[in-house]
Amino acid sequence: MFKKNKISFVLLIIFEIIGIISAINNFQEKNWTDFWFSILYIVTLLIPYILVIITNRKEINLPKRFIEFSLIFIFMSQYLGELRNYYQGIWWWDILLHFLSGTYVVLIALRISKNIISQEKNISNKRFKIFILLFAFCFSLAFGTLWEIFEYLGDLLFNTHMVKGGLEDTATDLIAHVLSALLTSIFIYLRKNLE
Fold first, then answer.
1. Torsion-angle region of residue 77: left (phi > 0), alpha (psi -120 to 50) or beta?
2. Beta carbons of 56 and 66 less than 8 angstroms apart
3. pTM for the whole thing?
4. 17-28 mean pLDDT
5. In sequence order, what are the residues at sequence separation of 6 or more whose Cβ sits closer than 8 angstroms to the Cβ of residue 36?
6. What is d(CA 131, CA 159) in angstroms, rounded to the nearest whole number?
7. What does the buried/exposed string (b/e) look like for 100-114 if buried means 16 or more CB atoms within 10 Å of the residue's CB?
8. Phi-psi region for residue 163, left (φ > 0), alpha (ψ -120 to 50) or beta?
9. Cβ distance 12 to 71 under 8 Å?
10. Using one digit for the tens of pLDDT, what is the confidence trace for 130-150?
């Protein structure tokens, strides 16, 4: 995999070196929050490679530049955003990253669905079930996110006080929604018949 894509490997090495330098500096300065966040950043950079390995085993092709985009996104969000404080210093940084990820996730979903449904005339029941459950899981997440937006807009425009604890309330709601959707999807996958 590394030999096939030299650009992604070079990006990985550069971003990992930056993370290691950051971790060392934060360790020396005893800035433990940023030290542990640097470690998290270093580990997170490996996730795109893990995803490619998993999808290749399932014969699902991700977009050609998936690894490069993912590495750059992780660098922009975790290193620049969190460790270099771009989120606080550049008011539109978070909006930009959400916009980019929203667009790219749609492209990934289209690519996955094309691989699972369109590429084969005779789709196995197992692959079709996985796709339907993935779609249902994502649909559930989208609904939960839209509901949180509804609550926020209600508070903003009509002073309804639906978001009781601010960020903590929203994050807790989203985490509960994700866990529920994930557990339900796993339960249905393990059942023999998809209803």
1. alpha
2. no
3. 0.75
4. 97
5. none
6. 40
7. eeeebeeebeebbee
8. beta
9. yes
10. 888 888 889 899 999 999 999
